[in-house]
Amino acid sequence: MAPPRKKAALEPTAKEGEKEPERKVSQSRVEKQPAKAPRKGGAGRAKKFKLSIDDFLPKHRAKFILTCGEGDQIGHGERLTTKKPRRIDGLPADAVFTQVAAGGVHTLALAEDGRVFSCGVNEKGTVPTESAEAEGSVNELAPIVLPEDFEAKYGKIVMVSAGASFSAAVTEKGDVVAWGNLRDINGTMETHDMLMAMQKGVTVIVPHQMHRCVKVACGENHLIALGEDGSIVTFGDGSQGQLGRLAVCRNHRIQYMVKQSLKCMVIERGKEVKFADVWAGGYWSMARASDGRVFAFGLNSYGQLGVSSGGAVGEAAAGNDAAAGDDAAMDVGDDTKELRVQFPTVADRLPADIHWTHAAGQHHVILRADDGRVFGIGKNTDNALGLGTWSRQDGREENWKYLDVQRLTNLPEDVRGITASLGCSLAWTQNGRAFSWGNDTVGQLGLGITDDDDEKLVETPRLITSAHLDNCQIVQASMADNHSVFLVAANE
């Protein structure tokens, strides 16, 4: 085994490129051109594509956080299980929260002032609070530790996302930072300094000086970030194609990790496709292009990415010399294969005329349209899609997989947001109600299903109720395999 590499600084540095010398052109080869009339009002100029971080920031403020499920990550101290949403006590009186995120073994809560609260299993830095012990656990929400000069350099944290045992965030200035433990199929990834630095504390992954980012989304062990210029950057485990580019970690070099080695590009007709939104879940990533098309990449064994055979569009870029069409789209009809979409590929099963705003899940994907409609695609065992169509009879499973998006007609039409994890899903509405469905293994659906109940499969969306929700409304929620977390505001 190679000796450990030297710990990287919080912000990696890069060498300035040298300016190319001017080329001298022989006058004999220059033909005189007629003078062009000046443009009026900038007519004919292509408008520069630019996104605003304000469009992606959390829109709601709330004082209460509720959780359900099991484990230290529910944040109820010695109480390690609750089958219905229960309010977390002991939060700072001055804290106003804007976002919550459920990870595989931990929970995040973002306060308006930039503080990030966390609890759960501290697996190699997953929960870097002041009282956390190495490989221990924290059963109550507490602020994570940031470097003393963090806010002066990067601004406060304004957005968070959680993976299996790591977290990521976006700062006011557009940096992407991350902390915790990234794993691949072989276990913990410790192949370069940045991954080791994440286990010791908050680490800058993408400095704003090189890519000013407006959004970040986490899968199990990877992240995708959206730049204000419409570019996308991916980082972490790419063994299932979820990075959309060559994914050999040992080839990363710390001084180049924020340049082209992290950038994931799609080139069409010689131009770079610009993206307007990104999502991630499980072992996949999605990016919505400015023209409405959704590009997807990663694990597609159940057709959950909406990519059918022959659906590849564009070239593979960012150092990849393989054509996207060769490996990107595979036949989803063969269930014995572990099917991967290796490069960003048009999800032709997701209509481009629908303006998608949310996508979440693992082997199934739940999507929300901007008009409040909800759709599902992929694996439907245990009725994870909420359609109520799956059944097991005589050892045969019917309607266990859908390769085209299906609309959930048994939900209200004013759905504000969705979240999903392994075999289960949840949606909340404009008026603050929440519905969940799928396989309630440990109470993560929040429906009060107990261990003594024989039937833990919820076929269609069911309303979540709790005494702790009286006179309150849910403004945001996040679901993981073993728990769910809710951001809740008091009714005015």
Name given to the CATH architecture of the domain at 49-353 and 461-481: 7 Propeller
Low-pLDDT sequence parts: 1-34, 247-259, 310-336
Q: Briefly, what CATH class of the domain at 49-353 and 461-481? A: Mainly Beta
Number of helices: 3
Mean of all residue-level pLDDT scores:
85
The major sheet is characterized as:
4 strands, antiparallel
The name of the CATH superfamily of the domain at 49-353 and 461-481 reads Regulator of chromosome condensation 1/beta-lactamase-inhibitor protein II
Structural class: mainly beta
- The CATH topology of the domain at 49-353 and 461-481 is Methylamine Dehydrogenase, Chain H
Percent of sequence in beta strands: 35-45%
- Percent helix range: under 10%
* Structure summary, number of beta strands: 35
Domain RCC1-like: 65-486
Organism: Plectus sambesii
Biased composition (Basic and acidic residues): 13-34
Keywords: Guanine-nucleotide releasing factor, Repeat
